[in-house]
Design a protein that fits this description.
2 copies of one chain form a homodimer.
Chain A: H1 22-41, H2 44-51, H3 56-62, H4 65-72, H5 79-86, H6 94-109, H7 112-123, H8 125-147, H9 152-173, H10 183-199
Helix pairs in contact in A: 1-2, 1-4, 1-7, 3-4, 5-8, 6-10, 7-8, 7-9, 8-9, 9-10
Chain A binds a DNA duplex (18 and 18 nucleotides) through helix 3.
Chain lengths: ~200, ~200
DNA sequence: GTCTATACAACGATAGAC
DNA sequence: GTCTATCGTTGTATAGAC
């Protein structure tokens, strides 16, 4: 579609006076768009639109769509807050806190971002690599480092698989009654598995 | 639609054998392409090419790409074979057989189809609905119907979540060492959870 | 003046619709 | 088969910083 006659704001060409943070605004817009639409669904033009700049700025500042994507994944969520909520307390009940916490986070967002993230992971190796490193080194990695006696990486993978699967079935597949079950039911059902993956005996 | 070539000889009674089955060939081609490339990755032209017909046939027979997609999902895999391999034997060891069986299936395909399926589920409501019904009514549904004492749907969802998550982390995310772990290790680690979801006590 | 940030235009590719 | 829309990308002119 051609630009409509009513322009929302004729953007001037040339360098902006003052400190314009185009790069930062592109990053912010990219996080939203990638989260909402996945890697394929998000378009460079739309991200640039949201940032209020031209699409060419993506190439200028990042080199392309993929580079923008990886750059935007630097801090998807705040791990400090998450870990501060999970780690303190009885180590024998950390499985319950993990399940409860992820349910709370995903319930709030409605599952859209989770579906977008899964879609990105499944369709783009770069996204899979990013998420893999993020889960292993930051999210689950720090949990197992804090509470697991051995085999930290394997435990992290098992724990991630259980949490990921629960999110997928509940929020993406929307499989009933799991999709509508309350937190207490799911915590009681799933937490023992998480607890065993984290602190229980492993082969 | 073009009929088979005019053949010399006496006129046959009844339905003519070898009539062109454009619709069926499109379905078959669509299953392969959708499985290999996901919904977005598969193109109407390529499916039609594989079927040996013109792309316009997709519109003619199905009405569009999405309708072809849903139609192609009718029978993704053969559930009879799967269940015949899992159900017989000690009910207390069915968890082990479930894990072993899915690992074998997915190891053989290398995870590509799984990634494509996950991508389709995450990006298309129609795919999610299809898979939900397929899992609930056919795959896991028959397992819980055979071995679970109660709460069949919840148990099916929990079981599906664990299996799905394991496949996602192992084949799509490729999270080590889980991605390279042998079957025995994963069966020993995951089967107890599956077993509890299927036959154990639930809240 | 030089350099950099910016917007605009247009290109080649591709996919879906008609 | 053709048409149209849209994608990511690139080239280029311009406005302002230094």
């Amino acid at each position: 579609m051609v630009a409509a006659g009513a322009q929302p704001g004729p953007r001037r060409r040339g360098r902006r006076p003052g400190g314009s943070d185009t790069r930062g605004q592109l990053l912010e817009a990219a996080r939203v768009e990638f989260a909402e639409r996945g890697y394929e669904g998000a378009t460079v033009r739309r991200i640039a639109d949201r940032a209020g700049v031209d699409a060419a700025m993506v190439n200028h500042w990042f080199g392309g769509k993929e580079a923008l994507f990886t750059a935007s994944l630097d801090i998807p969520i705040d791990p400090v807050e998450l870990l501060a909520d999970i780690l303190p307390g009885d180590p024998e009940k950390i499985g319950e806190r993990v399940v409860e916490r992820f349910l709370t986070v995903w319930d709030a967002t409605g599952g859209g971002p989770l579906a977008a993230m899964i879609q990105s992971i499944a369709s783009h190796d770069a996204a899979a690599r990013m998420m893999r490193e993020f889960i292993g080194n930051v999210l689950v990695g720090r949990i197992v480092a804090a509470v697991s006696p051995d085999q930290h990486e394997l435990r992290a993978g098992l724990c991630g698989a259980q949490v990921f699967g629960m999110g997928m079935v509940r929020y993406v597949l929307k499989f009933e009654p799991l999709a509508s079950a309350d937190h207490a039911t799911l915590v009681a059902a799933v937490a023992p598995s998480i607890q065993r993956y984290l602190t229980g005996p492993l082969p």
